[in-house]
Amino acid sequence: MSTLKNLTQSVIEGNVEQVKDQVRSLIAGGVNPVEIVNQGLIAGMNVVGARFKAGDMYVPEVLMCARSMGAGLELVKPLIAEKDVQNKGKVVIGTVKADLHDIGKNLVSMMMQSGGLEVIDIGIDVSPEKFIEAVREHKPDVVGMSALLTTTMPAMKDTIELLEEEGLRDKVKVIVGGAPVSQEFATSIGADGYAPDAATATDLCKEYIGA
Ligand code: B1M
């Protein structure tokens, strides 16, 4: 059986096929899917993030790492999401305008689904107008926004302002997250909540929904 350490290394190498093989092997070996995500896949992306920041890795390499992480997530997703099928409320989630980072958002979606929430994932580069459209169409209890760039964080504020202008703000709770986002920022833009990770985001939604 493969080990979580090997999996972490394969994410760092951006080796999609190896990641898939190792995740399958870990699943077959009975390893908890949440451990596969936290101690295998995310652990790898943490190393990648540090190397990218230090200038030791470049965008194409990071993209391969992200793809390998995504391929691994896809394999564990059904195992985590199917644990609890009871529907406890609805969340519309997206990565804000001009931001293409989706690994964290996908992880948050996955955890929310595993927590019994219905999640409508409207993707990346989501403009305030698209969030509004989704709120009108799906009538969620919570709107979740993810941003990974300091330059795209203001789009969260724009979206909240548009919700207000369109008379929808009091119909939904808004939560925000992503590496550069903080509680202080969330409060300053009038969001209802901030979550530093996927598990906290899920708990926060359940708290709002009363699930
Ligand atoms: Co980009 N990137 N990137 N990148 N990238 C960062 C974010 C950066 C910090 C790296 C660095 O330089 N140190 C930096 C931003 C600097 C800044 O703004 N301060 C950066 C940059 C500069 C860029 C480009 C501009 C690079 C370029 O082109 N020169 C470019 C921008 C593209 C764009 O969006 N317009 C770019 C591109 C990319 C790739 C495409 C190569 C790739 C993204 C692939 C993809 O997502 N499909 C990529 C990646 C992978 C990263 C790093 C290395 C890793 C991000 C990640 O996936 N982390 C990142 C460095 C880093 O963060 N250390 C970096 C793993 C993920 C599980 O964590 O997303 O934080 P995270 O999600 C967490 C929590 O934040 C939270 O829960 C998650 C799970 O615990 N969370 C929420 C997230 N969303 C939430 C929502 C919630 C609640 C919690 O409620 C709704």
From TrEMBL:
<dbReference type="InterPro" id="IPR050554">
    <property type="entry name" value="Met_Synthase/Corrinoid"/>
</dbReference>
<dbReference type="GO" id="GO:0008705">
    <property type="term" value="F:methionine synthase activity"/>
</dbReference>
<dbReference type="InterPro" id="IPR036594">
    <property type="entry name" value="Meth_synthase_dom"/>
</dbReference>
<comment type="similarity">
    <text>Belongs to the methylamine corrinoid protein family.</text>
</comment>
<dbReference type="GO" id="GO:0005829">
    <property type="term" value="C:cytosol"/>
</dbReference>
<dbReference type="InterPro" id="IPR036724">
    <property type="entry name" value="Cobalamin-bd_sf"/>
</dbReference>
<feature type="domain" description="B12-binding">
    <location>
        <begin position="88"/>
        <end position="211"/>
    </location>
</feature>
<dbReference type="GO" id="GO:0031419">
    <property type="term" value="F:cobalamin binding"/>
</dbReference>
<dbReference type="InterPro" id="IPR003759">
    <property type="entry name" value="Cbl-bd_cap"/>
</dbReference>
<dbReference type="GO" id="GO:0046653">
    <property type="term" value="P:tetrahydrofolate metabolic process"/>
</dbReference>
<dbReference type="InterPro" id="IPR006158">
    <property type="entry name" value="Cobalamin-bd"/>
</dbReference>
<dbReference type="Pfam" id="PF02607">
    <property type="entry name" value="B12-binding_2"/>
</dbReference>
<dbReference type="Pfam" id="PF02310">
    <property type="entry name" value="B12-binding"/>
</dbReference>
<dbReference type="GO" id="GO:0046872">
    <property type="term" value="F:metal ion binding"/>
</dbReference>
<keyword id="KW-0808">Transferase</keyword>
<keyword id="KW-0489">Methyltransferase</keyword>
<feature type="domain" description="B12-binding N-terminal">
    <location>
        <begin position="1"/>
        <end position="88"/>
    </location>
</feature>
<keyword id="KW-0170">Cobalt</keyword>
<keyword id="KW-0479">Metal-binding</keyword>
<dbReference type="GO" id="GO:0032259">
    <property type="term" value="P:methylation"/>
</dbReference>
<protein>
    <submittedName>
        <fullName>5-methyltetrahydrofolate--homocysteine methyltransferase</fullName>
    </submittedName>
</protein>
<dbReference type="GO" id="GO:0050667">
    <property type="term" value="P:homocysteine metabolic process"/>
</dbReference>
